[in-house]
User: Fold this.
Amino acid sequence: MSGRHHLPSAPSRPLLKAGVVAAAAVTGPLAITGTAMAAPSASSGTWDELAMCESTQNWEADTGNGFKGGLQFTDSTWSEFGGEQYADSPDEASREEQIAVAKKVQDEQGWNAWPTCSEKLGLQ
Assistant:
């Protein structure tokens, strides 16, 4: 995805006094933006939870379905985000190397790069 999301400017006090509906409209986007901004520094536990959902945390997974490693990269995504500096294929890279590449993917594509599991884990 190109472009960056920016935090909305701080609402004025009268807007907050307008009521629950206005407050919900203001806090909804902030929660989404806050999640997206916090993601690049996601803890290793978050990546482990995602890998558990994606591959039962099998960092060497290659089941022949086109997705490899603990975080289920395609070869093209692995290559595009610099994974080949670590290994030819995601399933041949270490957990830490896969997470390093995943952080780059997440920074550009958001948690939607792992649509089912990120939704299941409440990361979206």
Summary: The helical segments are 13-17, 20-38, 44-55, 75-80, 95-109, 115-120. The chain is about 50% helix and 0% strand. Residues 1-41 have pLDDT under 50 and may be disordered. The CA atoms of residues 59 and 77 lie 16 Å apart.
